[in-house]
Amino acid sequence: xxxxxxxxxxxxxxxxxxxxxxxxxxxxxxxxxxxxxxxxxxxxxxxxxxxxxxxxxxxxxxxxxxxxxxxxxxxxxxxxxxxxxxxxxxxxxxxxxxxxxxxxxxxxxxxxxxxxxxxxxxxxxxxxxxxxxxxxxxxxxxxxxxxxxxxxxxxxxxxxxxxxxxxxxxxxxxxxxxxxxxxxxxxxxxxxxxxxxxxxxxxxxxxxxxxxxxxxxxxxxxxxxxxxxxxxxxxxxxxxxxxxxxxxxxxxxxxxxxxxxxxxxxxxxxxxxxxxxxxxxxxxxxxxxxxxxxxxxxxxxxxxxxxxxxxxxxxxxxxxxxxxxxxxxxxxxxxxxxxxxxxxxxxxxxxxxxxxxxxxxxxxxxxxxxxxxxxxxxxxxxxxxxxxxxxxxxxxxxxxxxxxxxxxxxxxxxxxxxxxxxxxxxxxxxxxxxxxxxxxxxxxxxxxxxxxxxxx
Length: 456
Hints:
The protein has helices at residues 3-11, 31-42, 58-71, 79-88, 107-111, 237-241, 249-257, 391-396, and strands spanning 15-21, 53-54, 117-123, 142-149, 152-159, 162-163, 181-190, 193-201, 206-218, 221-232, 265-277, 280-290, 303-313, 319-327, 341-342, 345-346, 355-363, 371-379, 405-418, 421-433, 442-455. By secondary structure, it is α+β, with helices and mostly antiparallel strands. Helix 2 packs across helix 4. The two termini are 36 Å apart. Mean pLDDT is 81; it is low at 1-28, 96-118 and 124-138.
C-alpha cells in the first residue's frame, strides 16, 4: 500500500468536537444515526426531510420522530422497524399510539431548550464512497456550538456540513468530506417549508453564503432547492438576509455587483426523495455550477453534475442501496479563482469534477449492522481549480477525456459500540487501471475506513 493511499484512508480523518446545548435526554447523531434515519425514511416511518441537513441536531431529530409518530401504522411495524425506532429514541414504544407518545420524552426540551451542555466528538467523516476512492486529505480539528430558541436552530463554529439525500461522501453541494470550515448555520420552519442558511469563510479570503429550502410536498415526496455563492471578502449583506434560494441572488448580482466590477460564483441545486411504497425510496440531485448559452464570441459548456439512487429495505430489515453519480469537467471551478473548494477539496463531491461512478451497498440486517459494498469509478484528469485555457479545450475535455483511470473497489464495514464510542470500521481494496491517469499503469490499493463518535 502506498503512503498516499494510507493517508487517504486511515489517517484521512476529521476530528469534530461539538458542545451542544440540549437537555440530558437529547440525542446525538452517532455514525449509526444516518443509517437508521435512511432506513426509517424508506420504510415510510420518518418524514423525508429528516437528516437532509447535517450535522443532525437533537431537536431536529426529535421533531422528525414526532412527525413520524403520526405516520406509523402499528400493524405494519416489523420487529426490525421497532428495533431501529428504539435505536433513535430508546425511551419510545413504537407499538403505543397514544397521543403525545414521543413528546413525553421531549417535554424538557420544549420547556427548557437551553438545557445541560453536552459534549459530542466525532472522529472521521470517512465513507466507502469517499475515502476508498482516494479523495481524502487530513483535515484540521473542528468544533461548534448548537442551540435552539423560539423555533430557530443555530450552529456556529468550525464544522463539516452536509446537505442533500445522497450517501455520505456523495453530496454535490455541501458534503462532510470537505472537512470543517468557519460558519454560522440558521434553520427554521415557515408553513411547511424548512429553510436553512449558512454564512461562512473559505480559503484565500473568500466567503460563502448558502441557502436551501426543503418542501414536504406530500408525505411520500420531498422537494429541495439550494443555492450557494462564493465571493471575495466579507459576505454581501443582501445575499445573507433573505431565506429564498434560487432566483433572487442572480438578479441582485447583475443589478448591484457586476456594475461595480464584482463577480460572484453562484451554484444551484435541486434534489428530491420519493417513496412510491413503503420499503422503496428513490432519491436524486442535480447540481448546476454554470449555465451558459453559447454565442459566436463566447462558446463554452455548462458545468454541472447529477446523482441518482435507490434504497430498498425488506421486511426482515435487510437493505440494498444503489447510486450513480457523474460530474462534468471544470465543475466547482471559476476562471476568477472563486472555486467551490476548501483546502484543495471540493465543498461537494469528494472526487471533484470529471468522473462517474456506480456504487452498491448491501446491509444484511437492520442498522447498526455489517455492510458490504462494491463500486466502479471512471476518473478523468480534471481537477478542482483547473479551468480551460481556450474555448476549444473547454469542449474537447468536457468529460472523461485523455487517459481515464478505472477503479474497481470492494469493502466491508462492521459496527462497534464500546465505552461510549460508537462507529464503523472495515477494510477495503481497489484495483486501478491507468492509475493516476497514467496510461498502462496498474495499482492495488487497500486501507481501512473508520468513522467513530463519542458523547458524554
